[in-house]
Structures are given as C-alpha cells and as structure tokens.
Amino acid sequence: MLRGRVSDSITYIIGAGVSGLSAAVCLVDKGADVRLYEAAPFAGGRCRSYVDGQLGCELDNGNHLLLGANKEALKLIKHLGVREKFFCPDSGVEFIDIEQGTRWNITPQTFLRSRQMIPDAHVQDYIHSLSLLFSSDHHTVGQRVADSGVLYRRLWNPLTVSLLNTPTMMASATYLRDIMLKLFFGGHKALRPYVPKISWADSLIHPAIEYVQKRGAEIHYNKLVNKIGLHHNRITLLRFADQEIKIREHDKVILAVNPSTAKKLLPDIDMPDQHNAIINVHFYAPKLAEKLREEEKYFWGIVGGDVEWFFVKDQVISSTTSAANEELLALPQEELAKRIWKNLQLSLDIELKIPPYRVLTEKRATFSCTPEMNKIRPDNRTSYQGLILAGDYTNTGLPATIEGAIISGKKAASLVVKG
Ligand SMILES: Cc1cc2nc3c(=O)[nH]c(=O)nc-3n(C[C@H](O)[C@H](O)[C@H](O)COP(=O)(O)OP(=O)(O)OC[C@H]3O[C@@H](n4cnc5c(N)ncnc54)[C@H](O)[C@@H]3O)c2cc1C
C-alpha cells in the first residue's frame, strides 16, 4: 500500500483502533517489525463490537455507516478481502419526517439534482443554501444555511449532525461543504452505503488483526501506556504498569490513541479538547430484522425525532443519535429506549411491544467538528524524533470518521517508511 522500504527498526503502535490498525496494515506490507500495544482486552477502539451477555448477540459500540466516497476505507476493505461482508444497497435511502408524516427517498439519481429530492422545499430554500459553497473556515453551517427553510430541517440539519457529529449551529461549514462536493461530484458510486452484514468486528477489525498477525505483527492486549519518556527532543521510553520499553534511536512510535489520552501523554501538543456524544440503542428483534432485510431495508433516516438513523443488523435494530443533547443524555435508560422505540414504531408504522434493548452512550464519541477545534488539529509528524501521531483527530481535513482514522494511520506509516 505504501512506496519505500522499512529499515531494521521496530515500530511500536500504541492503540489498536482503526488508525493504529490502518498503520499496522501498511507497515506489515512493507515488511516492518510491528508491535501493537492496546489498553483494552480487544481491538477496534470506538469501532469495537462485543457480545452482549444480556441480549445474547454481538453488538457494535457504534452504528458506523460508510459511503462509497470513503475511498481509503474501501481500499482497505478490498485489500483485506472483506468486501462480501458488507451490504451495499443500491436503491437509495428512505427518510421519514415522523413529526409531519412525510416520506421520501434519496437516490444517487435524485441527489441534489432534482428539486423534488426533498418534499415541500422551495426554490428560495435552494438559493439560500448556495451560500454554503462560499463559506470560509470560520463559518458554521448554521450561519450559512439556517434560512433555508424546509431544506434546513430535512437536509442540512440531519446531514450535518450525522456527518460531523456536531450541532449544526456550531459545526464547520467548510467541512460539510467539502463532503457535499465529494458526494455530488463522486456520482453514483460515492453515495453507495456500506453496512456490515454482522458487525464491524466481523467485517473490519478481526480481518485487519488477522492480516497483520499473519505477516508477523505482535499484538499485546491489556497494555496501557501511562507515560511517554521524552529526552532531548526524542522519544526514549514507553512505560506500562508492569513494563518499560526503551526506544532506540532508529525505532519509531506511532501514538494511535484517542485525543484526550494523547493530550494526557503529550501535554505540550495542541489537540481538540471538545467532544460530542453519540447514543446507540440496540433493540433485540431478530424476526423484525429478518423481515426488513427480506425487503432489502438495511437502514433509514429519521427527521423530527430523537434519532437520525435506524440500522438493521443480524439480530437487532439499532438507532443512532449523533451530537446527543443534554436532555437525552440525562434521561433514564428506560425512558430513552421507550422514546426511541416510539420513533421506530412511527417510522415503520407498526405497533410492536418494546423488545429487550441495550443503551450504549459514548460521551466522547468524536471531537467537536467546529471551526475552533479544526484549527488546533495536530499534524502526524511531531517535533519529537521517532514519535508520530495517528488518529481521527489529526489534521486530515475530515471529521472524526473511519475514513479519517484510516488516512491518518496511513500517513503515520508513510512517515515511518520515510524515516
Ligand atoms: C458511537 C459512535 C458512532 C460512530 N459513527 C461513525 C460513522 O457512522 N462513520 C464513521 O466513519 N465514523 C463513526 N464514528 C467515529 C469512528 O469510530 C472513529 O473516528 C474511529 O473509530 C477512530 O479511530 P481511532 O483509531 O482514531 O481512535 P480510537 O478508536 O479511539 O482508538 C484508540 C485506541 O487506543 C487505545 N488506547 C487508548 N489509550 C491507550 C493507552 N494509554 N495505551 C494503549 N492503548 C490505548 C484505545 O483502547 C483504542 O483501542 C463513530 C464513533 C462512535 C463512538
């Protein structure tokens, strides 16, 4: 995947999330001696899956959605040979405004090309939206398109919250604009969704682990780095509770942890320090899930409710609420699950009783993609010799996503190869 060769040194990768695994895949392809150290007893980081004892099935920590526009993610999927582990529906995405009872379908053919794409939107709403194209780095989406009427409610607001995990009034306008341009000019392929058939662990994380282990990488779990030794502008030491590793002159360390841990370990480097939450509620409903899959319904979007998406998985139907607000975060789980099940009932027009569920809340799901936070995203290269950063929060020009994490890991690996 990368040009160049890796010398005799060891590359230590701290963190086996998507960015750490992306770096590891690139480096083992170059024949590098790679050693991964992961704090948790499993890999995947924020993209992990686990078997839930209570529901008796595998759950994703987050309902991640990939699009064809995520070219680096698709390259990695192809490289690992796991394309068949994803559903890629071609029939567009159904949206339902559950407050107003309106339904519509966005397909690659109608995406921004037809005025009928969003029901009830007026010509003026589209004209108001054009200001997004002329945004500058300091603008928020809200400042640019809050006056776009129905389009704000049914397109810009749900898209911004889903793509940037940031409230629309605070989210970076240029980030949203750049994604929209990629989707618009990427054509049919760019809009194609990729949903794992079983889980993210099954589709991406386990195959990546298997790939790097087969090519000689070591993976050590339950290994939390609690200190990084720096001396004369060089990284010299990794400290764990039960071990210390001396970093030799030609060794490299890729720190592929989340931004708050990176900041604790490297307080001198600026990192985004504001985050937004994501709530996923997994409803155990295998029969309903099977029925929906038979209808080729794998996910659908919601407007005017407490969630943005519902996903159909193997045995569960799961909701995603991005940039979850304080009101939802403060609700007792039972009440929250009931509200979200009501959203599902309205969207499917069914009366089923609420099934067993699991609420998963990630308070720091991603850094807040605001103009202020984007300004302080660090580069992969640090001023310390031998120390390289990787992670969705580095300066990739993308919001915190699988695609961003993969790009960041790949850049970190290319810095190792360059020496
Ligand atoms: C609920 C949720 C939904 C999401 N939805 C989407 C989506 O739809 N589409 C999308 O593209 N992205 C989505 N994301 C974002 C995506 O998950 C992240 O951008 C990506 O997984 C980040 O990967 P990473 O490697 O940068 O960081 P992380 O996943 O945070 O990985 C860091 C790893 O480092 C380990 N670690 C931390 N500290 C230490 C230490 N001191 N020593 C050793 N190891 C350590 C952690 O255990 C972890 O495994 C979502 C995230 C969440 C939480």
Written overview of the protein:
- With 419 residues, the protein is α/β, with parallel strands linked by helices.
- It folds into three domains: 10-41 and 221-273 and 370-418, FAD/NAD(P)-binding domain; 50-89 and 192-196 and 275-367, Polyamine Oxidase, Chain A, domain 2 (Alpha-Beta Complex); 109-189, no CATH class.
- The protein is 34% helix and 24% strand.
- It is built from 14 helices and 20 strands.
- The chain has a seven-stranded mixed beta sheet, sandwiched between helices. The protein has a five-stranded parallel beta sheet with strand order 10-2-1-14-20, covered by helices on one side.
- Helix 1 (18-29) runs parallel beside helix 8 (200-214), helix 1 packs parallel to helix 14 (402-418) and helix 2 (71-80) packs across helix 14.
- 46% of the residues are buried.
- Residues 14-20, 37-40, 45-47, 61-62, 64-65, 224-225, 256-258, 261, 278, 280, 362, 365-366, 391-392, 400-403, 405 line the site of flavin-adenine dinucleotide (FAD).
